[in-house]
Amino acid sequence: MSAKRSPAVTLKSIAAEMGVSVTTVARALKDGDRISPEMVDRVRATATRMGYVRNLEGARLRTGKTFVIMAFLGLSPEEEVGDSGSVGLLNGIHARLASTDYAVRAVPVSAAEQSLDRVRDVVQGRLADGIVLDHIGLQDERVKYLLEADFPFVTFGRTELLSAHSWFDIDNEHAAWQGTDALLRDGHRRIALIDGDMGQTFVRQRLRGYERALSEHGLSPDPALRFHAEPSAEAARGIAADLAGENRADAFLCVNEMVLLGARAGVRARIGAGIDGIGFAMRAGTNLASYVGGRIHASHFSRRQSGWELADLLLRQIGGADRASCQKLVRTDLVTT
Amino acid sequence: MSAKRSPAVTLKSIAAEMGVSVTTVARALKDGDRISPEMVDRVRATATRMGYVRNLEGARLRTGKTFVIMAFLGLSPEEEVGDSGSVGLLNGIHARLASTDYAVRAVPVSAAEQSLDRVRDVVQGRLADGIVLDHIGLQDERVKYLLEADFPFVTFGRTELLSAHSWFDIDNEHAAWQGTDALLRDGHRRIALIDGDMGQTFVRQRLRGYERALSEHGLSPDPALRFHAEPSAEAARGIAADLAGENRADAFLCVNEMVLLGARAGVRARIGAGIDGIGFAMRAGTNLASYVGGRIHASHFSRRQSGWELADLLLRQIGGADRASCQKLVRTDLVTT
User: Fold this and answer.
1) A124 and A187: one domain?
2) Which residue of B lies nearest to A85 if distances are taken between CA atoms?
3) Is A126 touching B (CB cutoff 8 A)?
4) b vs e for B143-174, b when ≥16 Cβ sit within 10 Å of the residue's Cβ?
5) Do B104 and A104 touch (CB under 8 A)?
6) What is the pTM of this model?
7) pLDDT tens-digit series, residues A261-287
8) Is residue A285 located within the same domain as residue A177?
9) Whole-complex ipTM
10) Do B87 and A88 touch (CB under 8 A)?
């Protein structure tokens, strides 16, 4: 490799040149935290003039940090539409880390496999400074292990464990209530729920919101209108075609974009233009609804923003914040097209 | 942090225990390359029994490698549908690296900004072992710099530079020819092209394919049917509504999923059920077409697969392969729904 290395310009020599402290120079070159914008500009100009180049090796050795975040995500084998994997999360994690020295290693996991061994490898081998976990179980073994090891981590979604840990979550009960309520206000009465597997925390939360909205409108939930499985467009297509064809449902509350598209395709194939009388609502991480045509209620929260928040909570912990203070719950916006 | 470190079990002590070479142990624990599966199992079992944990710090110091890949990508601020950013690429890059020790740092860039300074920082500060570049210009300054610095990199798309460099690309001329040809075989004659900005290599390649298909069917291209701009659903919606309403176009060749959805929304708003007489084709990185309804020709190549191939070519170069040998062109599949 013929790329030239600069001579040994250090934080110390820049500080001496400018007559300021090494801490000031370090902060100005890193993220400008607690330094005036003018000083940041002055330090950066001096550093450039002197030929300073950053090198992470020194910081690694000095701090014992790896500057790596491990993200255990459900990476989908095919790029799908919307909420079918953690690709949006990954985007947001990278976006938050772009202004830092951190790199990401993504560990693909499925909801079924809990990957405890891989988590243990990271902690024991010090392969990263912190961990992001998705597909959280009610009694997640990985969370128990990481709490015991006192290793920085954040989960996307909550557990039912009593010990406080850092998490970011969307208020799923509210989101499902919001969509169901919107469909009821449109006059629909037989609202089918097409949702994920009941083993996942967020599915139980959604079910509560759905039933609460029905009960507020004086309706009791009909078990024949509830479908729980690994979400897929194909399955939703079949369910919706059956229900709409036999006039059993007049609206669909869908767990994500894929399920909404599948349900709409099924209804359209079965009753054609009659689809205009059927209501649709979904939880959404994209603005897909604007392009589909027809009235759709979307409970929207960006998955990219979710990834950003996860990385932010994790960085705060790595920086020393108490893990119980690193929790965040956000509500979805109802967007009707 | 209370996570316990193992005692100093090394590759050497495992090799001594088993009576095999250190190289065998290292390969078995890394990727199993050139080692029998049985030996991999035996080595891993011994390592686990002896309490061996991997630690990258040693490898970093020994090899001088950072085990970081920098990916300069157009990360979209909102999670969009399909080909609107490099999120699918990022997914594929992570998937390829999952079996290695590499982490990724994503540097968000827009097509307009060429980020030469950031590339120079990476090389001079040795912040990574290799670089992935997207949004490639015909005479890309970053490519020129990296060739001169002899630093491992791979581009998504080709340049017009004479020096050989490593790239991965989709055969865009073929993809556009394929879509146009399919529309012509369906009987369409006035095919509008809604594509990206002409400053990008792939847009010129697509234009050639579009014009070649027309000419093979005895038609000359009509400049009034060609639209070049930063692709967006909104713009496509307006263009398609105008053209369909005034009966000027009977089909649309769309650069990606967003543009297709926008164009369909525009046509539907303007001529309603008349949309069934209008042809649609697009370049696609997702299976969106199956859920939209209506006949759509998709020239499909997975963006995740593209990311996988980019990371693979880059690893080969970091491993010492000649950059001129690290080039790959793939053809899209025509999928008609």
Assistant:
1) no
2) B91
3) yes
4) bebbbebebbbbbbbbbeeeeebbbbbbbbbb
5) yes
6) 0.79
7) 899 989 988 998 899 999 999 998 877
8) yes
9) 0.74
10) yes
